[in-house]
Each structure stands twice: as C-alpha cells, then as structure tokens.
Amino acid sequence: MPHLLPDTGPQRVLAASNFVCTVGSGLYLTAGVLYFTQAVHLPAGQVGLGLGIAGFVSLALGIAVGRLADEHGARGVYATTLVVQALATACFVLADSFWPFVLAVCAATGAKAAGVAARSPLIRHHGGERPQEFRACLRAGTNLGVSLGALLAGWAVQVGTHTAYHLMVIGNAVALAASAALLVLLAPVAPAPSAPGPRWSALRDRPYLLLTALDGIMAIQFKVLTVAVPLWLVARTTAPHWMVSATMFTSTVIVVAFQVRASRGIGSPAAGGRAYRRAGAAFLVSCALIPLSAGAPVRAAVCLLMTAVVIHTVGELWHAAAGFEVSFALAPRHATGQYLGVFGLGAGLAETAGPSLLIGLCITWGRPGWYVVGALFALTGLAAPPAVRRAQHHRSTRPAPLPAAGSAPAA
After folding, report:
1. Where in the chain are the domains?
2. Contact between residue 275 and residue 325 where contact means Cβ atoms under 8 Å apart
3. I need a surface site. Which of 62, 108, 128, 201 has the fewest CB within 10 A?
4. Confidence class of residue 405 from pLDDT cuts 50, 70 and 90?
5. Please, what is the angle between helix 336-358 and helix 298-329, to 10°?
6. Which residue has the higher pLDDT, 3 or 84?
C-alpha cells in the first residue's frame, strides 16, 4: 500500500528493517508455543511458566537499554538488540529441557523489549516533524509483516515435523539478523545533550508514570481479540470456528489500511487524551456486543461478533495513535529511549497479566465479566485527558537540556 512507504531514505530503511523483523515475529507468535510443546515436548504448564518469567525479565530491560541508546547512540544499541534476539532465537533448537528453554526465551524476549526502547530515538530523529505519524506507519507495516509470517508458520504447523518446526525457528533468526544488517544503511544518531537532574528522570516523572499506568490498563485490549474472543467464540457461541481467523484477518486489514490516517488526526497531547477517551467508549460498546452472541442463531452471532470486532479495532486505532502522541510529545528529546522504555512497562504488564485477567472475567465469569472489562476501558479513557493535562504542565516546568560540549551559546 502506498501509505506504508515512507517519504525519506532513512525512514524507508527503518521501515524495511521493521518489516523484515516482523515477518520473523509472525512466525514465532503464531507457532512458537506449538514448537515448544510439539517439537521440544515440554508440558504446556512449563511453557506458560517460562514465558511468564521471560515477560517479567523483559520489563526492566526496556528502561535500561533505552537509556543506553540515549547516551551512546541508538543505531548501534538497536542493532545489538536485534543480533542478541537472533542468536537467542537460534538457540531454541538447542533447548531440550525446561531451564535451557527459560534461558533462551528470556534472552529473546528481553532483547525484543530492549529493542523497542532503543529504536525510539531513531524514530524520533528520522521521523521528521511528526515522528508519531511515522510510528503509525511502522505499526501498519508490523501488522502486514506479522500476517505474512503467520501464513508461513501455518505451513510448519500443518507439516508438523521436527524439520518444519526447526526451519520456522531458523527463519525467525535469519529475519532478525537481516533486520539488523539493514541498519548499516542508516546514518548513526549522535547522543542527545544531557539535562540537569537525576539520570533516571523517567522513573521520577509521576505524571508520565500515571499515563504509563493508564495506557497499560487500556493495552489489555490487545488481548481481547487474540485471547478472549477466540475462547468465547468456540465455547459460548454457535458461530463456526473459522470465524476466529476471520476476526483476526478483519482487524489486521483495518489496522494496515487506517492506522496512519488515524494518527494524522491526533496532532497534540490534548488530542491524544481525547483519542484515549474515544477508544475507551469504543471498547465499551464492543464489550457490550460480544456477550450478546452467546446463544444467538448462527447468523446473528456472526453479525454481532464481526460488528464488535470492527468497533473494537477502531478503538484500537485511536488507542495506538494516542499512545504514539503522548509518549513521544511528553518525553524530553534527550531521554527519548529512557522515557519510551518506561512507557513500554504498561504494555509489558498488560502482555503478562492481560490473558489471565480476561479469561477470568470474560470466559470463567461470563457475560457480566465482559461488561466489567468494557467499563474498565471506558473509565480509563475518561481519566486520560486530565492526566495528559497534568503531564503537559509538568513538562512546561522541566529544566532545559544542557548544550552539548563545544557548542556555541545561544545568541
């Protein structure tokens, strides 16, 4: 699609690197758990425990590596995280028991989280006047890449042999290595000037931490379509099971087609706060429609589910665009990596705790749980605008960065 191709050379290099990386991610996201349970023959409980441990390990790495990218140059740090992730992924073929599996998956997951933070200064530097819009372009490309990777993973799952699964793992590792190699075409980014105050300023910025928490609560919505809806569709509705794939395909197409456009309409932190509010309302409507599909005739169940998925995905567009805007606009330029690493904590916690929360409320409890989840999203959206205003006020009182060594004083 034309809107997925950025305007400048550096942006195209970053977009190409991101696309290649996410094709590999699609391989792992689709069939990674099956690889460890079917090819390595680890019990599902051990796989879940190992992935949970890796999720918690990755939370702290994003902040630390993000600060390294700020202080020592983002391109080299980001490329290093991709290489580490490639090597750790390749080690999956050697993981034949629980602890080697835990070590490999912790290294891969931690490097992935660190790479997200380390890439942030590159996005800000090469993103022009609107790095948030460039970030939206990368997200649309991510969805396209993951979809292609998922198609390739489907072959490995269908064949089901050790060789097929090993080829899938090696394909992911090669994609990560190729993504790192493409960064050679990108000019290095000099470290930003430092600012007075504590080195770990992001962890002391309470208004920004509040926004991180609110975004993390709302980020649970990313697990609604991948965890709650499939389980609900299969267990509680008369809809055909192939609708699981149809819902995911529909959501992916909407994100690829409209994420950049949605971000163009959100040009300030205040607009980001209002987008959070709209997203919360959309999630409330979606979560109110989904439980109505239980016990409904097949056609009615299909219509309700597809309508809910479309509304939910529109909310996802607004939520993602709002997160891009406030996370970049309210982070000081000299500490972009550190601040974006902190902002990623919310999504990381949602990734770790979201599935169990949604299963407990929406699947185990049933229809009332969907209404509770929808209300949680709506209340979070309502809390976002005042939280953004508070963070803007705090930013206006923040000390200015010190000039780089050897630079001339302002006239």
Report:
1. 1-191, 195-397
2. yes
3. 128
4. very low
5. 160
6. 84
- Could you tell me the end-to-end alpha-carbon distance of the chain, in angstroms, rounded to an integer? 46
Can you give the pLDDT at residue 394? 87
Write down the H helix ranges in 160-205: 162-182
Distance set, CA 5 to CA 2, 12, 250, 324 (Å): 6, 7, 22, 19
Q: Which pLDDT does position 407 carry in this prediction?
A: 42
Q: How sure is the predictor about 76, in pLDDT bands with cuts at 50, 70 and 90? A: very high
Q: Is the pTM of this model over 0.70?
A: yes
Measure the CA–CA gap between 209 and 27, rounded to whole angstroms: 33
Pick from 388, 131, 390: which is nearest to 272 by CA? 388
CATH class of the 1-191 domain in this structure: mainly alpha
| Residue whose pair of structure tokens reads 């949970």 in the numeric block | 52
CA 335 – CA 177 distance, rounded (Å): 27
Please tell me if the domain spanning 1-191 has the same topology as the one spanning 195-397.
yes
Q: What is the structure's pLDDT at 372?
A: 98
Report the Cα 14 to chain-centroid distance in Å.
17
d(CA 283, CA 316): 8
CATH fold of the domain at 195-397? Growth Hormone; Chain: A; (1.20.1250)
- In 3D, which of 207, 145, 188 has the Cα closest to residue 331? 207
Distance in angstroms (rounded) separating the CA atoms of residues 205 and 203: 6
Give the C-alpha separation, 305 to 189, whole Å.
46
Distance CA 88, CA 110 (A): 10
- Cα distance between residue 78 and residue 296, in whole Å: 49
Task: Report how far apart, in Å, the C-alpha atoms of 162 and of each of 92, 105, 256, 265, 411 are.
Answer: 12, 19, 33, 48, 67
At 257-283, the pLDDT tens digits run 999 889 988 989 999 999 999 999 999
